[in-house]
């Protein structure tokens, strides 16, 4: 069985490419895993912001209602007419 130089070179290239593709695949896996973690953290931040917005909406609406009702009362109208 004679193996000439070309067959040895091809075998070496096949092994080398297999190793490179394996390493590249593993690195892609790690990158995708890190991306998933980052997106999960970003999603958590967005959800926390949504909860904060919903929780602050009720007190702001109540304060707005109080201020609006105070500004529309006859006493406040007289006060503003005198000062302005």
Overview of the structural elements:
The structure is a single chain. The chain has one domain. The protein is 93% helix and 0% strand. It is rod-shaped. The protein contains 2 helices and no strands. The model has no long low-confidence stretch (mean pLDDT 85).
How would a textbook summarize the main sheet?
A: none
Helix % is over 70%
Average pLDDT number = 85
| Structural class by secondary-structure content | mainly alpha
Shape: rod-shaped
Number of separate helices: 2
β-strand percent reads under 5%
Task: Pick out the low-confidence regions.
Answer: none
The ordered H/E elements are HH
> How many domains in all?
1
Gap from first CA to last CA: 109 Å
Strand segment count: 0
Radius of gyration: 35 Å
Transmembrane segments: 6-32
Keywords: Membrane, Transmembrane, Transmembrane helix
